[in-house]
Amino acid sequence: MKVNYKYASPSMCINENEKTTLGFSPDLSRDERVSFLGKLKNPLIFRDAMLMLREIVVSDMSQKKKERVEFFQWLDGEIERRILKHKQYLPEARENISKEINELLANLDDKNSDIFKLIDVKNNIKKEIDKSDVWKDYYKLERDFWKFIKERDVNLWFVLDPVITVHPDQVSFEAFSVDESTYGCLSISMEEFEMLQEPKLGTTNIDFSLKLAKEIERFRTYSDVELSVNPEGFAVDSGVMPEHMEKKIDLPETWIKGFNQVSSAASLGGIDIELCPIDMYDICSFLRRHKANKSPRYMKWILEPNKPVKIVFEPFGKTLTLKAIYTGEKKREEKIWGRRRWLVLEKIIPLVNSFKVRLLGFGMPQFIIADMGNMKMTIGFSSWSANDWVKGTTFNILSGFIGEGSYDKVYGLLKEKRLASMEDIYNNLNDNSKSLNKAGVGMLLRKGEGYYDAVNDTVRFRRLCNDPIPKELYETTETELKVQEHMKESMDGFNVKITEDNEYIFTHSLKMPNPKYKKWKYHRTPDYDREFDLTQTVLTIDEDGQISRVKCNCREFNKGPRNISAPCSHILALYMISTKFLRVKLEPNKEYKINDIMEKLL
Q1: How far apart are CA 23 and CA 236, in angstroms?
Q2: Burial of 80 (0-12, 13-18, 19+ CB in 10 A)
Q3: What 3-state class would DSSP assign to 305?
Q4: What is the DSSP string of 12-56?
Q5: DSSP assignment, residue 344?
């Protein structure tokens, strides 16, 4: 998707006596002319939080192609070293060979001597060509070039500007990492500011250059800092207004879709663990001191009721015991990959009152909310660093955001109120069912017109792009259509059983295509005319409401990793159905069919 950003001037820091104005230039191509002016009460916390957000923006943990420049340099040196060694220790053999060669050369005729002269000429020419060959150092030059670009002007290296939204109660900054596996959102309460003018609500992209980040590093306690978002731009010290600036960007589709998936995942319930700053320091300190050179590279969280949380770091096999106490009712173990991404939190550890870590289950993302008083930082990590938010689980389906629903009404409500909890949306739009309103919220998120605030559990209005998003980026996917079809199928094959550990085991038989249907090889067999087979889909949900095990015999599920990180449409449909029966009181170790459950409800 191609977008054009227009700024009245570059963003800049303006220093006047003991006052510093951090001026962000908003995108003028948007309908909403956002403006804001307020003095920060804690500029140093804001400084480090913004610098951390920038570290998220430029971080890239994706696997790089190995460069072998250093190896070939070493190889050339090794060859030269061995030649010198032979010259030193084999002089006699070399002299004898030279004498024999000279005797043979003396017996050659004139034509052979001419040939040798030509060979010498050829070798000399080849050496001259090798000396002038620019491709010899091509890879080193290429690496040095990109390193230079990244150090001097990150705008050439990374072109996706953060998104700022002015809400009635807070100002938020959102951004994605280069590899699109890490999401960051800095929320600043209006109580943090001494307001100097009435803010104009809305969303815009801001010009956040590397030069501006270096200016932010210079914030100190002895100077007042004002945050300004001004559509008219900012003038330099001379009073001369810089030239109008434009950016033309080919926005990645995954960047747009990723925002939707982050919001959907943030709305899912999970296991919340409260960590103190010392706990987070211990985790980051271990990761900083240890770097794995072999697999497996994960940290396993061992959670036992009313006991300190333990983390096992593989492949080192070392255990770290935290001060945090797990308050759940069941022992569980959670594995987290892409752990080195957690190092981005180091910068704000001294400023944080507490960290809330939310684990969504095996192969699922993790969210960390850092409480810094009037400022909150929300970080979302995809299931592993090689996996961006789009390639992973369809979180919008797991969250129940299927279809278009009452999108128009939800859009009108949130545009007016700017934020609302799910209960507020249900109460204001009580003419529609909850499922329709929930689907409407999902479509709002999918179109980039809102996001889920994990700190306050609210849906906030936010237009991600200045132009409407193309339909192919938000239309109902094939997987969602399949899930809707499966949910309409007969419930005759649906069963549920609860174990003594309060785990719900749901089983269902849903339709899947028969691979032998109308294949001539199976003519005159029962398989030839049977269009569908039935699956054996199993879903286990523990007492914390987390998916602990999944199983399905369909081809779609078995060709992947066979876990919840890549569910098939049958598992998603069974999950949507099963959530309606989690509060039904059942006898342990007894299997119930749908008719038995309906009798208990009636």
Answers
A1: 11
A2: exposed
A3: coil
A4: EEEEETTEEEEEEPBPTTSSS--BEEEEES-HHHHHHHHHHHHHH
A5: G
What is the pLDDT, as a whole number, of residue 375? 96
The DSSP line for 124-159 is HHHHHHHHT-GGGGHHHHHHHHHHHHHHH-HHHH--
Q: Prior bond to 231 cis, omega within 30?
A: no
- State how far the Cα of 380 lies from the Cα of 358, in Å rounded to an integer: 10
**Distance from C-alpha of 262 to C-alpha of 176, rounded to nearest angstrom:** 10
Average pLDDT of the segment spanning 301-326: 94
Q: CA 356 to CA 396: how far, in whole Å?
A: 23
Report the C-alpha gap between 531 and 53 in whole angstroms: 53
C-alpha closest to that of 181 among 287, 57, 97, 305: 57
Compute CA 584 distance to the chain's CA centroid, rounded to the nearest angstrom: 36
Q: Could you give the CA distance from residue 190 to residue 169 in angstroms, rounded to a whole number?
A: 6
Q: d(Cα 575, Cα 135) in Å, to the nearest integer? A: 57
Query: Predicted confidence band at 201 (pLDDT cuts at 50, 70, 90)?
Result: very high
List pLDDT tens digits, range 119-171: 888 888 877 776 665 545 654 665 565 565 555 544 444 446 688 999 999 99
For residue 23, give both structure tokens: 């001026």
233: left (phi over 0), alpha (psi -120 to 50) or beta: left
The length of the chain is: 602
**What is the 3 state secondary structure string of 511-535?**
EEECCCCCCHHHCCCHHHHCCEEEC
State pLDDT tens for residues 493-520: 999 999 988 889 999 999 999 888 888 8
What whole-number distance in Å separates Cα of residue 216 and Cα of residue 347? 14
More confident residue, 201 or 128: 201
